[in-house]
Design a protein that fits this description.
By secondary structure, the protein is of the alpha+beta class. 29% of the residues lie in helices and 18% in strands. α5 crosses α6 and α6 crosses α7. It catalyses: ATP + [NEDD8 protein] + [E1 NEDD8-activating enzyme]-L-cysteine = AMP + diphosphate + [E1 NEDD8-activating enzyme]-S-[NEDD8 protein]-yl-L-cysteine.
Length: 407
């Protein structure tokens, strides 16, 4: 995390520095926000940008992440990005610790849906409701950009007011997985061979010790998977297994296209400008971009989902028969397209005490609670209308559900 900062009265301003921005802020126009009055007093220039990223720069980032150069490989991304911005846009930077509350606008360029949902949940958790009415000053707008090859999207989320990430979870394409039977017995593609090694051989052979999970960033791990995948491919006369493909499959890499990233980054930056200056109405609220074949963009208004488990403020109902097993509830939480949880932990309150029904992330608790999975909801002592609290990596908040028994 680095701070990019320039102080407003600094000598780094030069003549005409803000000319382009002035055209938007000092003149009226057809797309102006109805409540905005153009003037020379209007805000100009972003002077305070925090860059948050825990990663270091890898050589494979250089083709698409414009701020990084070969000499930067190994350095923290946040440091280098802040340096670059500061050298390009004169000012100064200093690192600082922060709370999400201190930010006015958050822009996300994340590579996973889980990370988006987490950030979404974080901003939802900061909302203040008084007697059920949202305090608008507690809203921190979230601008989210995403790309996948030649496709991209940019969206503006006003948490608690407009559709959130979880409201539109069904819009995201499912992650493509190969059927296990194909991987195990009828591989046809080089990817099938790599998946075989990743899913079946690695856990069985544990080549780097008992508790060592496969790390897609560790060249020795990838090398091992690569060699084993070659052997598997040879067995089935499959060609095309390469080191690069192995890493791509293990890390689920989707090739990044620099021009798509640039278009989406520009759209996000424009939205930040519109919201920060209040001079123009923001995107309402979801723009898709596609240049697979020609160039196409389309904007639509994603709608809030009334019973969104993240932003609706109402516990969702879970409809199960008393004779359903806890495993079925767990399957629903992970497989339902509107929830798509990853490793949900389910707790409830019984006789005034917290009771963990199932928790996967701590081995000892998993072992202790595993027998509950094969018990029925009735056997577990759960009642109609019982509240279940579910924690998951997809949100920093606990999600409440109400159990509704079906007969
Ligand atoms: Zn929502």
């Amino acid at each position: 995390m680095m701070l990019v900062d320039g102080d407003a009265g600094s000598t780094s301003d030069w003549d005409d520095r803000w000319n382009h921005i002035k055209k938007f802020l000092e003149r009226s126009g057809p797309f102006m926000h109805p409540d905005f009055e153009p003037s020379t007093e209007a805000l100009s220039g972003f002077r305070n940008i925090h860059v948050v990223d825990m990663d270091n720069i890898d050589v494979s980032n250089l083709n698409r992440q414009f701020l990084f150069r070969a000499k930067d490989v190994g350095r923290p991304k946040a440091d280098v990005a802040a340096d670059f911005i500061n050298s390009r846009v004169p000012g100064c930077f200093c690192p600082s610790f922060y709370l999400y509350l201190e930010f006015h606008i958050i822009v996300c360029g994340l590579d996973s849906i889980v990370a988006r949902r987490w950030m979404n949940g974080m901003l939802l958790s900061l909302l203040v409701y008084e007697d059920g009415v949202l305090d608008p000053s507690s809203i921190i707008p979230l601008i989210d950009g995403g790309t996948e090859g030649f496709k991209g999207n940019a969206r503006v989320i006003l948490p608690g007011m407009t559709a959130c990430i979880d409201c539109t979870l069904e819009l995201y394409p499912p992650q493509i997985n190969f059927p296990m039977c194909t991987i195990a017995s009828m591989p046809r593609l080089p990817e099938h061979c790599i998946e075989y090694v990743r899913i079946l051989q690695w856990p069985k052979e544990m080549p780097f010790g008992d508790d060592m999970a496969l790390d897609g960033d560790d060249p020795e791990h990838i090398q091992w998977v690569y060699q084993k995948s070659l052997e598997r491919a040879a067995e089935f006369s499959i060609t095309g297994v390469t080191y690069r493909l192995t890493q791509g499959v293990v890390k689920r890499i989707i090739p990044a296209v620099a021009s798509t990233n640039a278009a989406i980054a520009a759209a996000c930056a424009t939205e930040v400008f519109k919201i920060a200056s209040s001079a123009y109405l923001p995107l309402n609220n979801y723009m898709v971009f596609n240049d697979v074949d020609g160039l196409y963009t389309y904007t639509f208004e994603a709608e809030r989902k009334e019973n969104c488990s993240a932003c609706s403020q109402v516990p969702s109902d879970l409809h199960f028969s008393p004779s359903s097993k806890l495993q079925e509830v767990l399957d629903y939480l992970t497989e339902s397209t509107s929830l798509q949880m990853k490793s949900p932990a389910i707790t409830t309150t019984m006789d005034g005490k917290n009771k963990t029904l199932y928790l996967q992330s701590v081995a000892s608790i998993e072992q202790r609670t595993r027998p509950n999975l094969t018990k029925t909801l009735k056997e577990l002592g759960l009642a109609d209308g019982q509240e279940l609290a579910v924690a998951d990596v997809t949100t920093p908040q606990t999600v409440l559900f109400k159990l509704c028994f079906t007969s």
